[in-house]
Amino acid sequence: MRIVVVGGTGLIGSQVVALLRDRGHEAVAASPSTGVDTLTGEGLAQALTGADVVVDVPNSPSFDPEPALDFFTRSERNLTGAEKEAGVRHHVVLSIVGVDQVPDYGYYRAKVAQEEAVRNSGVPYSIVRATQFFEFVAPVMDMTTEGAEVRLPSLRLRPMASADVAAALADAALGEPSYGIRDIAGPEVERLDRLGEITLAAKPDGRSVVTDETAGPFAGMPDGALIGDDTAHLASTRYEDWLKRS
């Protein structure tokens, strides 16, 4: 199959492209750096010519509510419109576990709007919702560092390796449209402050973790919203094992 990965040069997209190529498919990375801009529509018609499937994984350059909402809704209108013209038969989009349970968080509202745009597009679709990536733990710790203290809330997460997210997306792209949502998550539930402690135990740098429920981008999130339920498909990679390899 010819599969276009929009956002195909990023963390998730580049891994999806590699996995699909390894399985013998023609996987094309589409992003502004390759001349494809979903916000303006530039390059979409050419990129989607002959495409069977689109994997939709670009991220908004801003986490602020209004720019994120504009990015996701405008991008989906342009992308799915071009898909219909090209006869694409399956649209696979990456979203976030629990995204519809935190209406006060503007970026998550924007992702909900993205999902709705995909559902209403008329293109057969599958929505894959993932928990937070292991790769995000260190940047969140850096954001909340004050001196030698990393201030993190005790919010429970079930994070997963980006490689496992990419594998799930590749599997979805090679399957039939589900017209629904599949939740994927890591194997273990951990508190965010505990993840910080595990990180610093593996890679000491002189900092220590202080539990602070008001710190960082996850402050105020309802506990339990981001871990998924019993229907979530659990990946096998543990955070400690991933840290040793990374």
TrEMBL record:
Pfam families recorded: NAD_binding_10 (PF13460)
Keyword NADP attributed: yes
Gene3D superfamilies for the chain: NAD(P)-binding Rossmann-like Domain
UniProt-listed SUPFAM superfamilies: NAD(P)-binding Rossmann-fold domains
Entry keyword Hydrolase: no
Record keywords: NADP
Membrane-traversing stretches: none
Record-annotated NAD(P)-binding domain positions: 7-172
Superkingdom as given in the UniProt entry: Bacteria
Protein known as: SDR family oxidoreductase
Species of the source: Streptomyces eurythermus
